[in-house]
């Protein structure tokens, strides 16, 4: 049936895409960090006994100790873990030993890393898989905090640091803290980001298309407001920096594009638009560049046609 075909191709809904992308990123990060046999599909199975989590906590404590000895001046201004965590490496899934490991890790996160309850998870969230979202958000927050004293960070955290640095440069602000020596970051592939964004936006087939205007590389203005969003490529996902976290662009559009979001207020506002407002096309004629006159390849199109939500003056065809 069509429904079964869709499920086989898209195993997760739009609202779950960001969680899938985070698990994928964290799995690859842990695999590189500890040479684990872990993938996004086995993410919970590998971590549910708590043994890897406790070993990870002890490794973070070890890195923090080395950092405190190497940079005592900076370390005084950071919250560094002072002790590790007890661990039963032979714990089996679903056992009391596994629960003890996970509980010890949770207490360590609260006490030694000062992770707030809003970003924490409970033992049963992982052992019985009651709430994978809270578990994933906690791991990502732990990675952010450990990156402050030199721990290798997942790709999402690296992209967050790049965006924060870009904002500081735009606002002419000093660096947040003393820059630390970090492992080399993977180069960001943004050359086809515009095409990928355009592909997702173009799925809207309404006469009035939800506008996304490129401001600079990886930065767009969305809708009729002055809202600016940062967009990055994470493997096969287009991620949007939202507040203190991430979302996929597809889910972001589902929530903000009036023609496809599920909000009742958005749909009612959309229905009240007049036909004149709902069919708007805007055309710009771009002057030929000097490169084109010299016979070199033309980098920009000569004619741009787009659809806009804002009313436009009538066009004499």
Describe this structure as you would to a colleague.
The chain is of the alpha+beta class and 317 residues long. It is 45% helix and 11% strand. It has a 5-stranded antiparallel beta sheet with strand order 1-2-3-4-5, sandwiched between helices. It has a two-stranded antiparallel sheet with strand order 6-7. β4 and β5 form a beta hairpin. The longest helix has 20 residues. It is found in: Cytoplasm, Cytoskeleton. Belongs to the GAS2 family. Keywords: Cytoplasm, Cytoskeleton. This is GAS2-like protein 2. One of its GO terms (cellular component) is stress fiber.
Chain-wise SSE layout:
Elements: H1 2-9, H2 17-34, H3 43-47, H4 51-70, H5 72-75, H6 96-112, H7 123-127, H8 132-147, H9 155-170, H10 193-201, E1 212-216, E2 219-222, E3 228-234, E4 237-242, E5 245-248, H11 249-256, H12 264-271, H13 275-278, E6 281-285, H14 290-293, E7 303-307
Antiparallel strand pairs: 1-2, 2-3, 3-4, 4-5, 6-7
Family: Belongs to the GAS2 family.
Protein name: GAS2-like protein 2
Keywords: Cytoplasm, Cytoskeleton
Short descriptors:
317 residues, alpha+beta, 5-stranded antiparallel beta sheet, two-stranded antiparallel sheet, 14 helices, globular, disordered C terminus
As a percent range, the share of helical residues equals 40-55%
Instruction: Note the main sheet.
Output: 5 strands, antiparallel
Number of strands: 7
Distance between the termini: 46 Å
The order of strands across the largest sheet is: 1-2-3-4-5
User: Which term fits the overall shape?
Assistant: globular
Rg over CA atoms: 24 Å
